[in-house]
Amino acid sequence: MTSPAERELNRLGLFYAVVIRAVVVALSSLVSWVTTDQRDVLLSTLVVLMFNAWNVCFAVRMLRRRRKWLLVVDLLVVSGVCLAQVWTIAPEMQADRVNWVLVATSIIVVAYQFHSSPFLGAVATAVILAAYLTGGVLADLQDWAFVIPIGSWMAVEALLGRGLYLLVRRGGRAADREFERGEQVRREAAVSAARRADEREYLAALHDTASATLLMVGAGVANRTETWLAEQAARDLEVIQGHTDPVDGDVDLVPMLRHVVDHVPLRIEWQVWNSVTLPAVVAIALCRGAREALTNVVRHAGVDAAEVSVRGDEGVATVRIRDRGKGFDPARTTSRGYGLASSLVERMARLGGQAIVTSAPGVGTDVVLEWPDARA
């Protein structure tokens, strides 16, 4: 299976190979055609123009969709141009036996190494080299005494091109392996983080529901014979099993919060200014946070009433729970303070909100849940 880096290398190799080939062939052939005298002006003009037109067509078709027949036709065209040196190259054009056809064939054999298989690249090099040397001999530009050095140099160019491609491909594959290892580490970290988040959410739900209810019973705050206790235990079980909370879309916070508050054994003074539409996951967190705060009122405040206010203003949703009970010192580590800090504050922070707990002995407790965090 081809790696992503290798696929990108093949794509870029094909693009630059055919584009650079077209540019080099056009510059070398047209400059030579304009600045020198040809043996046969008409045939030379036709060869140069048709060869450049084919190079443009070849580049466009290869970039759209590579097909084997294109390569076969290309080899025939290039070989034909090499054999046509008898019309396109005059002896006086060849300085040190270098002419535009040699320049064109050199770039073409190198380009083949970047968009073809090693076998096809070798075949193309051999065919083009043979055609070039044969065309040069037929045009009386050189004799066979120069076949070996020129042929060796073109073969070396092809080998260097193939070697460069293989070297870059090797680096790309190494980069892919490193990237895959990094992705594996990131996936494992994401799975681990998701697992820890699930555990935190489950423990928070357990803390907010069954644990709070059992603590009220154990502390003698609630009598086991009270009718609301069985109903509350059933609701706690549903929450723990995940059967009650919506998970997608937006919901109205107010009716959800009323449902939670109606089942708390307190007299609630409501203050609701307007409906508050929030993402379901945020509304659930606010409702659970409010229930935890009200449960703390039942367990610790020593009063039977609390105030609950809900407000949505300028993109910020605020739920406030206030009691006028015993209060506590937040600076001291108590079971009540620890529960609020570890559950309320952390839960709201994970959602991008905040929980502010204000209390003092003898003056009651004020809990403000806000989303998103207005300080951000």
Features:
376 residues; 2 domains; single chain; Heat Shock Protein 90
Q: Would you write up a description of this structure?
A:
The structure is a single chain. By secondary structure, the protein is of the alpha+beta class. The chain folds into 2 domains: 4-180; 247-372, Histidine kinase-like ATPase, C-terminal domain (Heat Shock Protein 90), CATH 3.30.565. Helix content is 66%, strand content 12%. It has helices at residues 4-35, 41-64, 68-83, 85-88, 100-115, 118-138, 147-218, 227-241, 253-261, 280-301, 335-350; strands at residues 250-252, 267-272, 277-279, 305-313, 316-323, 354-360, 364-371. The strands form 2 sheets. Strands 2-4-5-7-6 form a 5-stranded mixed beta sheet, with helices on one face. β4 (305-313) and β5 form a beta hairpin. α1 runs antiparallel to α2 and α5 (100-115) runs antiparallel to α6. The chain is rod-shaped and about 115 Å long. It starts with a helix and ends in a 5-residue tail after the last strand. The mean pLDDT is 80.
Which residues form runs of ≥5 with pLDDT under 50?
Answer: none
Helix-strand makeup class: alpha+beta
Estimate nothing, just give the exact number of structural domains. Answer: 2
Beta percentage is: 5-15%
- Which H/E pattern describes the elements? HHHHHHHHEHEEHEEHEE
Question: If you compute it from the alpha carbons, what radius of gyration comes out, rounded to the nearest whole angstrom?
Answer: 41 Å
Query: Spatial order of the strands in the main sheet?
Result: 2-4-5-7-6
Q: What gap, in angstroms, lies between the N and C termini? A: 47 Å
